[in-house]
Design goal:
This protein has 259 residues and is α/β, with parallel strands linked by helices. Helices cover 23% and strands 28% of the residues. The chain has one domain: Purple Acid Phosphatase, chain A, domain 2, CATH 3.60.21. Helix 6 links the parallel strand 11 and strand 12. Pfam families: Metallophos. This is 5'-nucleotidase. One of its GO terms (molecular function) is metal ion binding.
Length: 259
């Protein structure tokens, strides 16, 4: 999917690659799809052919295979280090072994972990998780922030103790405005694990529809393949993309910037 944003005085292109809900699928599935080695090969090919590529993950990179059961998340993080992710947000399954375990393997990450609506002050995640990251690449300023799903009925209270879940709509509005207006980002990307359930109070649909400054939402949690545009509060299109599950697919959005 390609779309155009008016920002730069000269034409620039950006390729966004996104994964979600890969669930510790280090090896290919029974159908031969997915696996870290194949994913790395695709990522390397795209990077070799494009100057400006950003790679993100939208949460739930943990849980689902023997690798997580035995190594508690280290294999996933080290593999994502090798793939050189630019930003990753947290899904509910990242918390399955508790905050101390999560902090232990996130401390080995060479990529930013972003989740703007999880207030982690005073917990083991303080200093490891931040609201957003700004990447400067090939003359573009790219703002990326994360959103996490409500822990209710998804994360055990004792595995989320001390973290405050903030209203994702209000958080997204404030952070996106800061990135676009104060930080002067050319593009604002939300990497979200809210999902796209139609009956949910907060979802990636509602975030997009009520936003003003978000250009792209890389979505997770729902295990669907999605590639749609939604009008925001100003009637401008927000692209929403989700890439299935288990790493069998990689989402890609090609963005062109010109004035």
């Amino acid at each position: 999917m390609a779309f155009i944003l008016a920002s730069c005085s000269v034409q620039k292109s950006l390729v966004v690659l996104t994964t979600n809900d890969t669930h510790s699928q280090i090896l290919p599935g029974d159908d031969g799809t997915g696996g870290y080695a194949r994913r790395l090969g695709i990522i390397d090919t795209v990077r070799a052919n494009h100057k400006c590529v950003v790679l993100v993950d939208d949460g739930d990179f943990s849980q689902g295979t023997i690798f997580f059961n035995f190594f508690k998340g280290d294999v996933e993080v080290l593999g994502m280090n090798t793939m050189k992710y630019d930003a990753v947000t947290l899904g509910n399954h990242e918390f399955d072994n508790g905050l101390d375990s999560l902090a232990k393997h996130l401390s080995k990450a060479k990529f930013p972990i972003v989740c703007a609506n999880y207030d982690v002050k005073g917990t083991a995640l303080e200093g490891l998780v931040k609201p957003y990251v700004i990447i400067k690449r090939d003359g573009l300023k790219i703002g990326i922030f994360g959103l996490g799903i409500s822990p209710v009925n998804l994360i055990a209270d004792y595995n989320f103790k001390g973290i405050t879940w903030l209203n994702p709509e209000e958080t997204a509005s404030a952070v996106a405005e800061k990135l676009k207006k104060q930080e002067k980002c050319d593009v604002v990307i939300c990497i979200s694990h809210l999902g796209v359930a139609e009956n949910a109070k907060f979802s990636d649909w509602t975030i997009a529809k009520n936003s003003h400054y978000i250009d792209l939402i890389c979505s997770g949690h729902s295990h669907l393949v999605i590639n749609k545009q939604v009008p925001n509060a100003d009637g401008k299109p927000v692209q929403i993309i989700q890439a299935g599950k288990t790493g069998a697919q990689i989402g890609r959005v090609d963005m062109v910037f010109r004035k």
